[in-house]
Design goal:
The chain is of the alpha+beta class. The protein folds into three domains: about 230 residues, no CATH class; about 230 residues, no CATH class; about 40 residues, no CATH class. Helices cover about 50% and strands about 15% of the residues. The protein has 14 helices and 13 strands. α1 crosses α10 and α10 runs antiparallel to α11. It is elongated and about 90 Å long.
Length: about 550
């Protein structure tokens, strides 16, 4: 241990005497390590990190696969009555819950804003094992009476930002879409729900869904509309494969009953046949369900490959710098060897210098990663629900940064250290500096230069293709004129407009838009253009058989 501290002190003194070398080496590594840390931070949060709940590996997600009959709002959804029946009759789960994300209008003490909300079943918090920071969370008793539980639980972040973390907010009313709900609690800090990247500000009992005007037509007791995201917690010893097999009989029992109900009266035999072929899929749910993950996982992995090349170039540069530095110190090393210094101690001391450089590059790289992540997160659309992505690395990311810093320092510092501690003593002590660039060192430097040029060329070609792809996307004709196009949302139903008054509101809105100077034309749509929204419905054409 004493020898290590002695090498550390000597290395620090040696590096202080070469500030230009130190600055170039540290900055080069900081760029490579910072870029890798930045992308890994996002990959960790969106793709790798499990939900911050009790035993997340026991969670699974359910989805009905095949040709459904009716409406569908979002991927992997089930109807609420189907969720209830599976919850009450299954033999594979210790608990189940459902959730439905939406945007609501929230009014409190004169201030109104659009916020992200999750309509959740009463067993949402108990199944996840999430408690309350203040007050209480929902329980199964909050599901007993439809429309009979006008309560709400605030998220911890919304409680801090909107209410100043005031505990006296409990028992007060917040008006959601015109309906007063009593605040009964605040969920625990660090829990943002089951959709990584999205942080809803409020949670409302799913049994209150029909009591609040919404932007969709989904009703609680309608079998023919699928909107609920359903999760289950596996019983001990149960696997997703066993659970999927165990759910099929119950699922088909539900399908066989539904196909005899009134909504199927005009459905063709072919449609009924395809409907009965549906099956239940059970998917791992430890990392939740995330639209951001679905959209950005491939681009993030592609970026990880690109920044990996940047790190390799930076490490090659570090190795070249260390070899060049060893060239200048060749006589010093030869003198120390001639005086009896062991080669292993010299290698250890030189390796200590490279590790110090890589550590400094890693520390600087963390700061650079925070700036890169802030810029990347700023590009992501958040809507009315804040993003739960953080630019601050956690301990896992810091461990990743520490590991690649040590790996870079050890791998790309060891070979130059071994090369520089094998000088020809006689020629080197005679001040023949050219000896250092002969033999193995010269071959290694040439190899590193070739590697740097090759990787840089590969990176340059990749960047050029990437920029060309961005240009193609920007100039792509989507089939309609995009110049000077403005899109915005307006939903009168959130302010107690009934269907008649809502239709009149849109008529008056169109008339006003026509009168605004500079407006050439306008149109309205339920699903905005290019929104990546999944919303479909069945229609039956009289007299037509598939």
């Amino acid at each position: 241990m004493a020898a290590i501290f002695r090498d550390l002190r000597y290395s620090l003194r040696s590096l202080r005497r070469s500030p230009i070398f130190l600055g170039v080496a540290v900055l080069s590594l900081a760029l490579g390590i910072g870029a890798n840390t930045a992308i890994f931070t996002l990959i960790h949060q969106l793709i790798l990190q499990p939900l911050p709940v009790r035993d997340p590996e026991q969670l699974v997600m359910l989805a009905g696969r095949g040709n459904h009959y009716g409406g569908n709002n979002g991927p992997d959804r089930l109807s609420y009555p189907m969720y209830q029946e599976i919850r009450d009759k299954n033999q594979v789960f210790s608990g189940m819950f459902c959730t439905y994300p939406n945007t609501v209008s929230a009014s409190y003490q004169g201030g109104t804003e659009l916020i992200g909300a999750d309509f959740v079943s009463g067993n949402y918090f108990p199944v996840l094992g999430v408690g309350a920071a203040v007050g209480r969370v929902f329980t199964a008793s909050d599901d007993l009476i439809q429309g009979g539980h006008p309560v709400a639980v605030l998220s911890h972040g919304y409680w801090r930002s909107r209410f100043g973390a005031d505990p006296s907010v409990l028992g007060k009313e917040i008006v959601i879409n015109g309906r007063a709900l009593t605040i009964i609690g605040v969920s625990q800090a660090g829990f943002d729900g089951v959709e990584p990247g999205r942080a809803p500000q409020i949670r409302i009992p799913v049994t209150m869904k029909d009591e609040l005007p919404h932007t969709d037509f989904a009703r609680l007791n309608t079998n023919r509309f699928r909107w609920a995201e359903v999760f289950g917690r596996l019983k001990p010893g149960m696997t997703p494969e066993k659970a999927q097999a165990g759910l099929q009989p119950l699922f088909h029992q539900i399908l066989n009953r539904e196909v005899t109900e009134k909504p199927f009266a005009k459905a063709s035999p072919f449609v009924k046949q395809q409907f009965l072929k549906m099956w239940m899929e059970v998917m791992p749910g430890s990392k939740g369900r995330s639209n951001l993950r679905r959209t950005y996982s491939k681009p993030l992995f592609a970026l990880m490959g690109i920044v990996g090349l940047v790190l390799l170039i930076a490490c090659s540069n570090l190795a070249n710098l260390l070899i060049a530095r060893a060239s200048a110190r060749q006589k010093e090393i030869a003198v120390r060897l001639a005086l009896g210094a062991g080669r292993s101690s010299l290698v250890r001391q030189l390796l200590m210098e490279s590790l110090l450089i890589s550590t400094a590059g890693g520390i600087l790289g963390v700061g650079l990663a925070v700036l890169i992540d802030r810029a990347l997160i700023g590009f992501l659309p958040s809507g009315h629900t804040p993003l739960s992505l953080s630019s601050t690395p956690d301990w896992t990311v810091l461990g990743f940064t520490f590991a690649i810093s040590l790996l870079a320092g050890a791998l790309f510092g060891l070979v130059p250290a071994l090369q520089s501690t094998r000088p020809k003593l006689a020629t080197t002590l005679k001040d023949q500096a050219g000896a250092v660039i002969r033999g193995g060192s010269a071959g290694l430097r040439k190899g590193l230069v070739v590697a740097q040029v090759s990787l840089s060329l590969l990176l340059l070609i990749g960047a050029g293709l990437f920029l060309q792809s961005l240009r193609n996307l920007k100039t792509l004709n989507p089939g309609f004129e995009v110049k000077n196009l403005l899109a915005f949302d307006v939903n009168p139903t959130m302010n107690h407009y009934d269907p008649k008054w809502t239709a009149d509101y849109y008529r008056r809105l169109r008339a006003r838009l026509t009168q605004i100077p500079g407006v050439e034309s306008h149109t309205l749509a339920v699903v905005p253009l290019l929104e990546d929204n999944e919303w479909d419905n069945w229609v039956t054409i009289e007299g037509y058989s598939a």
